[in-house]
Write a structure and sequence with these properties.
- By secondary structure, this protein is mainly α.
- Helix content is 51%, strand content 8%.
- Helix 2 runs antiparallel to helix 3 and helix 19 packs across helix 21.
- The mean pLDDT is 93.
- Bound molecules: zinc ion.
- The site of zinc ion has 8 residues, from helix 3.
Length: 469
């Protein structure tokens, strides 16, 4: 997650809408030029009205919102408009459309400050160095007046599609694009920001492959499709090898997370003896030596070229537990085989020294020392390592709060038995590509198009704006 943040600063998993960036920038300029406004109340009212306009526009023109998630506070704002009226005052009151006092500013604020859209000054925020007061005032014309009303008929709000989050009619789009993805460095590859490079990478990959599921499809292309190595535009981007390393690490981490989820959610059916739990993975594995099990797995690097061996048909047919173990072994098998630009983003032995256990290098060594043992015994031992680690991590995070000793864990081990307190989530760490694509969609650079009768799936495509970026 830290590496993803390095490569894509300013966009997070909770900031999918480009237009909230400019909305907040607009509120900051409004607050600084109208000293009489209550900052928090103004922000909340603006977010309520903006959300309502977006909800109404999405209802009427769903195709213009394809691929975009709903406005923040959607469920509550949407439900309150059932009688054809938006009660701004009631929704903006504390605890209503948003639990947080500052509405949905919180998730965006760090990114907006990083981009220079707002600064920390003032009671809430002030316009940042990249702010464009005149442009924003035009772009959000009418919003402040609507926000000052306590109640607005929905049919009036429907006339304000220029204020919708989809950005179809947003006149500040070009400006916001230039703030988020500055282009003054064109022709000078080395000085493009990492965020801009990542956006350019995604734009080009979307143009080449028109994916339905961005993260899954493009990850595989980036690793294993020779076109991504040969393409002139992609080769210009220094950031590409770094993302390859991150994708490989994501696959590796994904396998640990899913293996753990499988163990906790499906194998802990009550108070289960630890030995029984440790056998669960072993029982899915063949009765053979670890060395021959490893040899039968496809290689993650072949003759210096990366392979998406995790998706090999043989691996896909395996049962959950053993499949995740195979992914881990393929991942660990890449240690020492990656190029100098990919390797540091797959694993940094220096940075991860304090938390070495379970890293790719650790697993490679763990396996190498046990090559002559049965793969079932090794799986038994490895599960024991996971269980012990989970308890160690939980204890290290425990604390004495309000007179109680709290240990944050979904799994408790006591007297040789383990039992589940709640389910584990599993799943991969976010690359934030989906969020960035949504942001780019709000900026008119990409578009999600419907499937067609020829059997083509719904997919992302590049627009002319995206091509010109
Ligand atoms: Zn819209």
């Amino acid at each position: 997650m830290r590496r993803v943040e390095e490569l894509l600063p300013g966009v997070t998993t909770v900031t999918p809408h480009a237009r909230y960036y400019s909305l907040h920038a607009f509120v900051a300029t409004a607050l600084s030029s109208h000293g009489d406004l209550d900052p928090v109340d103004t922000l909340r009212r603006c977010e309520v009205v903006f959300g309502a306009i977006s909800i109404l526009h999405a209802r009427r023109f769903p195709e213009q919102h394809r691929g975009m998630s709903q406005a923040h506070g959607h469920d509550i704002i949407s439900a309150s408009m059932r009688d054809g009226e938006l009660n701004v005052a009631a929704l903006a009151a504390s605890g209503s459309y948003a639990q947080a006092t500052r509405g949905f500013l919180g998730p965006y604020l760090a990114s907006e400050r990083l981009l220079g859209l707002v600064t920390a000054g003032g009671e809430l925020m002030s316009p940042g160095p990249k702010s464009d007061e005149r442009g924003l005032k035009l772009a959000f014309d009418g919003l402040l007046d609507l926000a000052k009303m306590d109640s607005i008929p929905c049919n009036i709000l429907e006339g304000y599609s220029s204020l919708c989050l989809c950005g179809q009619h947003a006149i500040e789009r070009t400006w916001l694009r230039s703030v988020m993805f500055p282009t003054q460095f064109l022709g000078d590859v080395g000085t493009r920001s990492r965020r801009t490079q990542t956006a350019l990478m995604l734009c080009r990959l979307i143009e080449m492959y028109e994916p339905d599921n961005l993260s899954i499809e493009l990850s595989r292309k980036l690793i294993a499709d020779s076109r991504t190595y040969a393409d002139g535009q992609l080769r210009e981007l220094e950031i590409l090898p770094a993302w390859r390393g991150v994708v490989l690490r994501r696959w590796y981490t994904w396998a640990w997370r899913d293996l753990w989820r499988w163990l906790v959610n499906t194998q802990m059916t009550g108070a289960v003896p630890i030995a029984q739990l440790q056998s669960a993975l072993s029982e899915q594995l063949p009765d053979k030596k670890l060395s021959s099990f490893r040899e039968e797995l496809p290689d993650g690097v072949e003759a210096g070229r990366l392979v998406d061996a995790e998706y090999d048909p043989e691996i896909c047919l395996m049962e959950t537990g053993s499949q995740n173990l195979a992914w881990l072994m393929i991942g660990a098998g890449r240690v020492g085989q990656l190029s100098e630009h990919v390797a540091p983003y797959f694993e940094s032995t220096k940075r991860e020294r304090g938390n070495y256990e379970l890293t790719p290098s650790w697993l490679r060594d763990f396996l190498s020392q046990r090559n002559d043992q049965s793969v079932r015994d090794v799986a038994f031992e490895l599960t024991g390592v996971l269980l012990a680690r989970s308890q160690r991590v939980a204890m290290s995070k425990s604390s004495f709060t309000n007179g109680r000793w709290r240990v944050p864990t979904r799994l408790t081990v006591r007297d040789g038995y383990a039992f589940r307190e709640s389910n584990e989530g599993g799943g991969p760490v976010s690359l934030r590509w989906d969020q960035l694509t949504q942001v780019m969609s709000g900026l008119g650079m990409v578009r999600r198009v419907p499937g067609d009768t020829s059997g083509a799936a719904e997919r992302w495509t590049l627009t002319r704006n995206g091509r010109d970026q």
